[in-house]
Amino acid sequence: VEMKCILGLVVLVAVSAWAEEENFFLSRIRSPDEPYVEDDIAYDSEAERNADPCTAHGCMWPKSADGKVYVPYVISRVYTTREVAIIERGLKSFHDVSCIRFVGRSNQRAYLNIRSLNGCYSFIGRHDNGQDLSLQRSGCVYHHTVQHEVLHALGFHHEQKRSDRDQYIRVALENVISGMEHNFDKIHTLNQETTYDYGSVMQYHRYAFSKNNQPTMVAIPDPNVHFGAAEEMSRKDIIRLNRLYKC
């Protein structure tokens, strides 16, 4: 019984963290120096919102001669020592499972500018100049959130947007907050020869953007499958990352 209570508490905390992040999507007010943002995806302009930047002009970070993919980054000074440690732990977690290496920026043109802006968000893939990766101090500085936004920056979309998702989840648009339906649009994705992953750190929880406390996503064929509370990258997340970058 005690173990069940502990597990239940862990799930509750994880879902609460996701819910806290989701509140940013609903209440975000864009400041003049921020990019256009839908959900937690950033775009340079309104016109780009209907296109996938990766397919439009390429978005992978280049591989060096030594086989590693070096991604320069800068962390804003507004974070506390504890918050910096969480962010750096999230970045370094990629070193243990892939050829991705995050390095402090010197003078590189393309780099991740990790800042506490208005919510949790990132661009998809690499951009030519410094690109914001926002981890707002109040609500976004969690290990799984760092991994989630960094995976966006490396070129990955949300799991529920997969081109084949209708075989694995049913989206209940009737339960989605009006104006938030675009968060469930399917896109053409490179699934790296992997099946749908309910345990992906890129998968939203089943009540994401619900207007009536009813599920907005239901697993198929078993509606009781639990998803959306990942605390770190799954095995399939790691496999896809390594296949994409040929690690």
TrEMBL record:
Might you give the EC number(s) for this enzyme? Answer: 3.4.24.-
For the biological process aspect of GO, one term held by this record is: proteolysis
- Note how many cofactor molecules are bound and how: Binds 1 zinc ion per subunit.
Domain called Peptidase M12A: residue spans: 50-247
Q: Which UniProt keywords apply?
A: Hydrolase, Metal-binding, Metalloprotease, Protease, Signal, Zinc
Listed cofactors: Zn(2+)
| Pfam families per UniProt | Astacin
Task: Give the matching InterPro entries.
Answer: MetalloPept_cat_dom_sf, Peptidase_M12A, Peptidase_Metallo
GO MF term set: metalloendopeptidase activity; zinc ion binding
Which Gene3D superfamilies did the record assign?
A: Collagenase (Catalytic Domain)
Domain of life, per UniProt, equals Eukaryota
Q: Report the leader peptide range.
A: 1-19
The record's active-site residues are: E149
Top EC class of this enzyme: hydrolase
The family database entries (SUPFAM superfamilies) matched by this protein are listed as: Metalloproteases ('zincins'), catalytic domain
Sites binding Zn(2+) sit at H148, H152, H158
Q: What is this protein called?
A: Metalloendopeptidase
Species of origin reads Seriola lalandi dorsalis
